[in-house]
Write a structure and sequence with these properties.
single chain, mainly alpha, about 0% strand, rod-shaped, transmembrane
Length: about 40
């Protein structure tokens, strides 16, 4: 049972890490786009 739970935890972590990275990248891109949208004086 322990091996099964460890495998399940690893599977969930491996599946969630890309989503977290994608969300953080999207937030950074949105912030950068907002700054780009403003005209440089």
């Amino acid at each position: 049972m322990n091996q099964f739970w460890w495998a399940l935890i690893l599977f969930v972590v491996i599946g969630l890490t890309p989503l977290v990275i994608a969300t953080t990248m999207n937030r950074r891109q949105r912030r950068s786009e907002g700054t780009r949208g403003t005209p440089a004086r």
